[in-house]
Design a protein that fits this description.
By secondary structure, this protein is α+β, with helices and mostly antiparallel strands. It has helices at about 5-55, 60-70, 105-115, 145-195, 215-270, 275-300, 315-325, 350-370, 400-405, 420-435; strands at about 75-80, 80-85, 95-100, 125-130, 135-145, 310-315, 335-340, 345-350, 375-385, 385-395, 435-445, 445-455. Among the domains are: about 5-170, no CATH class; about 305-455, 2-Layer Sandwich (Heat Shock Protein 90), CATH 3.30.565.10. Strand 1 (about 75-80) and strand 2 form a beta hairpin. It catalyses: ATP + protein L-histidine = ADP + protein N-phospho-L-histidine.
Length: about 450
């Protein structure tokens, strides 16, 4: 009960209402004390009227009038003359005087608190203005004990009433919270629990119904999250199935390429100069294809293997990539340039870096060919004190905004029609394995630049 939202609202409401009543209690008790004293002054004035009607009063009648008024004596000031109207023996000296004529609220509050703080019965003097303009002032002497007891009785009644009000208010708020907040929250929790049991079942997706704006926003956010999770789970299932199929294809393709690799040994023995010149490239391509198939099989079992870092002559690696892609060029007027200095070296896994550059150069070449406009693809490199930077630039028309949203996400970041987006996703993963980043440096009507940024770190080997 106390750990529930409605239970805590019940307790907090009771506490806050009682706190508000305490803040109201102090001025209320001060006002009660003032009214009590003014009532004594009025009763004393009424008692003194008997003396005005008859100058001589019997001692017994005078004592009865003073007892009825609750005072020991009455002094009335009329026409600048101070006159003792009624009097009886005062049992003790007057200990305090209170003038109600010009008392401010702070003074009334202070005097009320002092009355509570002094339990002994004292004789006090009270001064006020007569009612009906019957004089300039009226002054009485009275006991403080009955005043204090009346204030305590009034305070207890206020406390009891405050307690009843706070309990009733808290109970009503408790019911309101359960209806307005707790019940809709439990409904949302129920949807979440049912969805967790079967996330692939679309019937478990919440349908926003709440009329409370905040709760409806929460329901809409939960609905969007559930839809995204359901789609992600379906995509992951399809990727798992695709991964199994790719692993099988890679296994068979590796066997075929291994056989082809055996035939290249005989091709290298050919006397044809053109064949002898092209044979090493064919051997390298088949070797890399076999390695890629083996890596794909490994990827199907775990993650991309950790890179084997060595100091790589990047110019030679980039030249192999550019030469491979130049073979796919037609008469479209596209040119591929390797502008990396021959002495440029960087720390990387040569096979993985070859795959990254091949993906980037191939994407740039295919993007240019799809436009039918002549252009260039350029591979550049430079470095600073902290990083090696390799850039693949093209002079195409830039990436569309939709492609930029999921650029490095598999099956979502394809920049050309029919593309799967796997190339950039794999490249980004390989670069992250080196501790670096693959970035879209810029894209627009004047071309696109991708940047590979690898940290230098500790160069001690």
């Amino acid at each position: 009960m106390l750990n529930s939202l409605s239970g805590r609202f019940l307790i907090l409401t009771t506490v806050f209402v009682m706190l508000a009543e305490v803040l109201i209690f102090v001025p209320s008790i001060a006002r009660f004390r003032e009214a009590y004293l003014l009532n004594r002054l009025e009763r004393a004035q009424i008692a003194s009227l008997a003396l005005l009607a008859d100058d001589m009063l019997a001692t017994e009648l005078e004592a009865e009038l003073l007892e009825t008024a609750g005072v020991y004596n009455v002094v009335l000031r009329r026409d600048e003359v101070r006159q003792l109207m009624l009097a009886s023996p005062v049992p003790a000296e007057i200990s305090a005087t209170y003038d109600l004529r010009m008392a401010s609220p702070w003074v009334l509050v202070r005097d009320a608190l002092l009355t509570f703080a002094m339990p002994e019965n004292r004789i006090i003097r009270v001064i006020g203005e007569p009612v009906q303009e019957a004089g300039i002032l009226i002054e009485v002497a009275m006991e403080s004990g009955p005043l204090r007891m009346a204030m305590i009785d009034y305070g207890l009644r206020i406390l009891l009433l405050s307690l009843v009000i706070s309990v009733v208010t808290a109970f009503l708020l408790f019911l309101a919270v359960r209806v307005v907040l707790v019940r809709p929250i439990r409904s949302v929790v129920g949807y979440m629990q049912r969805y967790a049991q079967a996330p692939e079942d679309a019937r478990g997706i919440i349908q926003p119904r709440s009329s409370v704006r905040e709760l409806r926003e929460a329901e809409e956010a939960l609905q969007m999250l559930q839809i995204q999770i359901t789609q992600a789970l379906k995509q992951r299932e399809r990727l798992a199935q695709l991964g199994g199929a790719v692993a099988k294809v890679s296994h068979d393709l590796r066997n075929i390429l291994t056989s082809a690799q055996l035939f290249t040994d005989r091709i290298e023995a050919s006397e044809d100069p053109l064949v002898r010149r092209m044979a090493p490239k064919l051997v390298n391509s088949i070797t890399r294809a076999v390695s890629l198939c083996e890596s794909t099989l490994a990827f199907g079992r775990a993650e991309e293997p950790a890179p084997t870092l060595t100091m790589v002559r990047l110019h030679d690696l980039a030249e192999d990539v550019c030469a491979s892609e130049r073979l796919a060029l037609d008469e479209s007027g596209i040119e591929i340039f390797n502008e990396i200095p021959e002495g440029y070296v960087m720390r990387a896994d040569p096979e993985q870096m070859f795959r990254v550059l091949l993906n980037l150069v191939r994407n740039a070449r295919q993007a240019l060919m799809s436009t039918g406009v002549p252009g260039t693809v350029t591979v550049q490199a430079h470095e600073d004190a902290d990083n090696w930077r390799v850039e693949v630039c093209d002079t195409g028309q830039g990436l569309p905004p939709k492609a930029q949203e999921h650029l490095f996400t598999a099956f979502q970041g394809g920049a050309r029609k029919g593309g799967s987006g796997l190339g950039l996703a794999i490249s980004a993963e390989l670069v992250r394995g080196h501790g670096g980043d693959l970035l879209l440096h810029r894209t627009g009507p004047d071309g696109t630049v991708f940047e590979i940024r690898l940290p230098k770190g500790d160069l001690t080997f």
